[in-house]
Description:
- The chain is mainly α.
- The protein folds into two domains: about 1-80; about 85-145.
- The chain is built from five helices and no strands.
- Helix 2 (about 20-50) runs antiparallel to helix 3 and helix 4 (about 85-115) packs antiparallel against helix 5.
- It is globular and about 65 Å long.
Amino acid sequence: MLKSMKSAMRILRWIRGKFLTKTFLKFAIVGGSGVIVNMLVFLILTNYTSIHHLIASAIATETAILNNFTWNHLWTFRRRGKMNILVRIAAFHASRVLGLIVTVAGLYVLSDLLGLPMNPSYIVAIGLGVIANFLTSDLFVWPES
Length: 145
């Protein structure tokens, strides 16, 4: 019992050390800017060009991913590691795919399997995806030296 309590406390300290930090706040701000970039590019492409909305969505999403990579690289994790930039961009893209999988899986579990309302489930699922994105960025894309 005492050993499991110590383990639980160690996990809670680790979580607090990762998520109640300036780094996570910066990551969240960058993510918010990505949402804005995504929407603006999507709206411009769908309202002022003849690009199909699904293609516009893909372009907008990739633009937001590159926006987020750039700001995370220059600001959030700027003092971390000397990984080759192309390797880092590839790792960042791979980590976003993992975040997508976590989000979709979370939505499926909450909404489809547990029968919870779809919209609140999606908000929670997005939060799970954000956690996955932050952890992969923190641990693999910009690991501490």
